[in-house]
Amino acid sequence: MIKKISLLLAFIIALPLIAALFIKNDYAVEQQITIHANKTQVFNYIKLLRNQNNYSKWAMMDPTMTKTYQGLDGRVGFISAWDSTNAEVGKGEQEIIAIIPGERIDFELRFIKPFAATEPAFMTTTTLATGSTQVTWGFKGHMAYPMNILFLFTDFEQMIGSDLQTGLDKLKIILEQ
What we know:
The chain has 177 residues and is of the alpha+beta class. The chain contains five helices and seven strands; from the N terminus they run H-E-H-H-H-E-E-E-E-E-E-H. The chain has one domain (25-175): 2-Layer Sandwich (Alpha-D-Glucose-1,6-Bisphosphate, Chain A, domain 4). Helices cover 32% and strands 34% of the residues. The protein has a seven-stranded antiparallel beta sheet with strand order 1-7-6-5-4-3-2. The longest helix has 20 residues, at 156-175. The N and C termini lie far apart (72 Å).
């Protein structure tokens, strides 16, 4: 009887670990919005990380979080850091790692709490035929084995995509005023 219970427990423990071997580890999310403003105006606003305090859903989740900055905003090497008691916001920083003037800004997000991770993100601007600007906000993530089993229970692409879209909707309101 003890042998059967031990085998059953081993099977229950092993099954998710085996399943995780066949589940993806990476995800990517991109959201877009059209803003009725010229590309230069839009890019000059989004390249400043401090401006994310005005439109990023995560920045708005805890208005009392501690924020610190290093370097010249809107330039490669600028770091924006946050520290929040809100577990959904946590602690981390983002650094501008590349800029193509007027077109693209790349960030490196370094999460410290509630989990450690380093992930890339970006924002691009494209002029549309109407003179408006299409803004794309993207994020890539990685979930190492065996934690990737969480992909079976949580749609990270939908969840993060929704948060990015909330930020883009707010950005549109700000820049179209």
